[in-house]
Write a structure and sequence with these properties.
The chain is built from 9 helices and 13 strands. The protein has 232 residues and is of the alpha/beta class.
Length: 232
Amino acid sequence: MADDRPRGNTPPGPAPSADSGVLVIGLGRFGAAIALTLDKLGRDVLGVEKDAELIQQWSDRLPLVEADASNPEALIQVGARDFPVAVVGVGTSIEASVLITGNLVDLGTPLIWAKAISAEHGRILQRIGAHHVVYPEWDAGTRVAHLVSGRMLDFIELEDGFTIVKMRPPKETWGYTVGDLHLRSRYGIMVVGVKAPGKPFEYANQETRIDAEDTLILSGDTAALEKFASRP
């Protein structure tokens, strides 16, 4: 399946350690969700936001500073150089997003993630040095389209057409083992695991039996998984 999102040539940057601090700039829905989740995971997080209302909204849940990150001096003052990872969650203003990302590049931030609201916006972010550009609205829309079009319960497209899905089993699989079905040779997909109702998830092997009420975890090419999910 073709992916219309632009692909950048920016080097991916170093992999951060599990306890690296993360600077999250912009606490709208996207940025706040990232900051709160990282905080739950025990990561050192600092939110930067210039909107006083958003600062007030999140001040009792996150470490925050009120600052305009489009000003490079403000970033220096909040200690941006101390964070190996930064997330630019600003999306409503392309100009601000680009300025903030450029400021982080100039400060030598090792790993920069940036939100884009359009393909053109994303290309600019990549060209000025963002290591990863994400398209939340596009990704959410693509995922929902797959979920509403068949029996898929969850859908994660990773890279180069490789996808992992959670789905209900088609009728042709009911009562058979993974070895009986030969799904890899017939459809080009692999059964990663099976979860029966009320039982824990189990990694699949050739003897794993699939029943009608089970949930399957499958991996493979996106088009192949879509074809399999469309089976009655």
